[in-house]
Specification:
By secondary structure, this protein is of the alpha+beta class. It is 26% helix and 21% strand.
């Protein structure tokens, strides 16, 4: 993914803002809160992308080749991953994780900020006009229940 591809995708998400800070990193925010950081590895000028993720995604990605816990962020107990190569996450999967990061951060905003941005409609329902990525976020298969985990004889 090029920096232009990265910026174009993040710009396509509703109500995002862009700032270049922290030594030239392209930082994308929703409601003033960071959801993605794109910066370069000084050795080969490859774009590294950092994003927030769910606990399950963090546990899955943190030890995969081409991904690592995000420096400074993950060390503080936050669930942020940095893609350092395409060995594990191709550009399509990265877009999915960026969209999921956007959603996680947007849902964590105060309700009044969500309303001001048009992210929620009446009664806490999502606003129908929010642009979303058409692809579903990359996810781990839903765990199945083992027979030993089901409650045998419940309700008897």
């Amino acid at each position: 993914m090029t920096v232009d591809d990265y910026n174009t995708f993040c710009r396509s998400l509703a109500h995002t803002t862009h700032v270049v800070q922290w030594g030239g990193a392209h930082v994308w925010k929703i409601g003033g809160k960071v959801f993605a950081i794109g910066g370069w590895n000084n050795k080969n000028e490859q774009l590294f992308v950092t994003f927030k993720c769910s606990d399950m995604s963090y546990d899955m990605l943190k030890d995969m080749p081409g991904c690592r816990p995000a420096p400074y962020l993950a060390s503080r107990g936050m669930k942020w991953i940095q893609r350092t190569g395409i060995a594990t996450l191709d550009d399509g999967a990265l877009r999915d994780y960026l969209a999921a990061s956007y959603d996680l951060v947007a849902r964590g905003l105060p309700k009044h900020t969500q309303r001001d941005l048009g992210l929620v409609a009446e009664a806490g329902k999502p606003a129908p006009h929010i642009k979303r990525n058409s692809r579903k976020p990359a996810a781990v298969a839903k765990p199945t229940r083992r027979a030993s985990q089901t409650r045998q004889g419940a309700g008897r």
